[in-house]
């Protein structure tokens, strides 16, 4: 299939991505923030999920599985910091939506314990706010944000992205 203009997830209209990378001695981790739409809480997006292994620590998936909609931005971070990132994402959603009484935020984990001193839990709410402020169409790839401490078969991993443009019944879609 044909690639999108940037060949990144941000080729999907309204999507922006930002990172906060923590790179200090044995701390190699961070946060990746995916802004899914300008007003995702009021204009919920069709959404689905698939669990690739049984070890993922995520928040928000049961509602997606049951309702098939997304009502928040999405964040990625390391396994032991999902909780603090979840609360920061709730804070952002509450600040942006005066009528919000409850929200289902989505935070996914990346186990960076091989390259990061994960037990120190160094990711803070402020790191999430910084990743949010960093959101843009042409975001960094590689060893940044939640991908900073990732490894694949004992080699450095990171953040990747791609997009595909296709047509169905005369309508153009970007995936």
Mind explaining what this structure looks like?
The chain has one domain (14-151): L-amino peptidase D-ALA esterase/amidase (4-Layer Sandwich). Helices cover 18% and strands 27% of the residues. It has helices at residues 61-67, 82-96, 125-133, and strands spanning 2-3, 16-24, 27-35, 45-46, 69-70, 74-78, 106-110, 151-152, 155-156, 164-168, 171-174. Helix 2 (82-96) packs across helix 3 (125-133).
Features of the shown structure:
175 residues; alpha+beta; L-amino peptidase D-ALA esterase/amidase; 4-stranded mixed sheet; 3-stranded antiparallel sheet; 11 strands
Fold topology:
Blueprint: E1 2-3, E2 16-24, E3 27-35, E4 45-46, H1 61-67, E5 69-70, E6 74-78, H2 82-96, E7 106-110, H3 125-133, E8 151-152, E9 155-156, E10 164-168, E11 171-174
User: For the residues shown, what is the average pLDDT?
Assistant: 94
What structural category arises from helix and sheet content? alpha+beta
Q: What is the radius of gyration?
A: 16 Å
Assigned CATH architecture? 4-Layer Sandwich
CATH class: Alpha Beta
Strand order in the sheet with the most strands? 2-3-6-7
Task: Determine the N-to-C terminus distance.
Answer: 10 Å
**Number of separate helices:** 3
Strand content: 25-35%
Runs in which pLDDT lies below 50 for 5 or more consecutive residues are: none
Number of DSSP-assigned strands? 11
* Main sheet specs: 4 strands, mixed
> What is the third-level CATH name, the topology?
L-amino peptidase D-ALA esterase/amidase
Number of structural domains: 1
């Amino acid at each position: 299939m044909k690639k999108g203009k940037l060949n990144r997830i941000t080729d999907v209209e309204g999507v922006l991505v930002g990172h906060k990378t923590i790179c200090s001695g044995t701390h190699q981790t961070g946060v990746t923030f995916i802004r899914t739409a300008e007003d995702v809480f009021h204009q919920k997006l069709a959404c689905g999920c698939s669990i690739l292994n049984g070890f993922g620590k995520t928040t928000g998936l049961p509602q997606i599985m049951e309702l098939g909609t997304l009502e928040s931005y999405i964040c990625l971070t390391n396994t032991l910091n999902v909780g603090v990132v979840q609360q920061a994402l709730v804070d952002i959603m509450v600040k942006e939506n005066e009528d919000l009484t409850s929200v289902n935020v989505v935070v996914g984990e990346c186990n960076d314990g091989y390259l990061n001193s994960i037990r120190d839990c160094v990711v803070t709410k402020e790191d999430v706010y910084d990743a949010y402020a960093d959101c843009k169409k042409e975001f960094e790839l590689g060893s940044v944000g939640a991908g900073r401490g990732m490894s694949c078969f004992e080699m450095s991993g990171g953040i990747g992205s791609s997009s595909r443009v296709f047509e169905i019944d005369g309508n153009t879609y970007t995936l």
